[in-house]
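Reopening this ticket.

The earlier resolution said the output was attached, but the attachment link was broken on my side. Pasting everything inline this time so it's all in one place.
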Amino acid sequence: MKGFDKVTEKKLLITYPSIPWNNVMGVRDIIAHHYFDIDAEEIFDIVHNELSSLLVAIRYFIQELSNSVMVVGTNEVYKDKLNAVEWKRKCDEIKRRDNYQCVNCQNQALIELDGVDDLKRYLGEIELKNFETIQNVFQRRKTIINIGKSRLEKCKLLQYRFIDICNLYLYEMEYTPCFSLYVPREKRILISTKKIESLEEIVNRCLVVDVATPVFYGGKDYKPKTDKTITLQFNELGDTDNRYMLYHCFAYYPGSYLGQGILTYNQYSIVFPLYSLDCKESLDVHHKVYRKKNGQFIEPWEYENNDLETLCHGCHLKKHKLPIKIVEE
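Inline output:
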């Protein structure tokens, strides 16, 4: 329903004002995200007494939108053109623009690893040089945090969200070492199996220690560079359910992007340079709208860049389960 409402610019649902649309969408959110709080008797009553009027409205919407949106599945018109040289060239351009990252979930936001050794599968050629250092530091994480010169950081909470695929809450923070414009804003994260009510607790319990060990990273120009700091983080609120989780994000320098990888296991995280995950082949380019000219779909590579976005394959499949607007030019 949210997809229908968005693609029709909030002009369709109001044609059935008797249906409490906010309640309809709210029930969906409860079933999808708060399943332990579901009232079975309430759901039974909705199914038996409320769905008939909703079904009438949905059938009307499908009929009205059949010529103006695609409501399910991928665009069959472009199915035979995805291997064309022009489309591949366009995809490369969009992926570079989006830093080889899914704009919806930042390449799934979280990737579960089989262990520290599994990290090697996701490191590029330059970052792979850091693997032994990352492995060594993370294996000694408890000792380093306990005896190292640690600090309690004041972080800014940027956002938090529930990652369905991992059944974990992800809290993303930002730490600025000083007020200089030329010092990067580093990312910190907290992962937990439970929603944390007091968000101030998160930023006040971020204990970190910098380990002086040489590491390599690749900048936007792909040239290998070196730094001498790798960061360990401890937060007693962390809980990954004894799973190794990899998170990929960006820290920002003036004029360039320097990626960060964060490997987390329960309360401990290690922050290391990671320009991009080695998963470019799993990324798709998605048409946010479909355009027709003289009644025919234009070629997939003829779209303006603003009509296209980079998605991982999982997010791409989810997008195509929502209605996509068709624009007649």
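Reporter confirms the inline version is readable. Residues 172 and 258 are 17 Å apart (CA to CA). The first strand starts at residue 69 and ends at 70.
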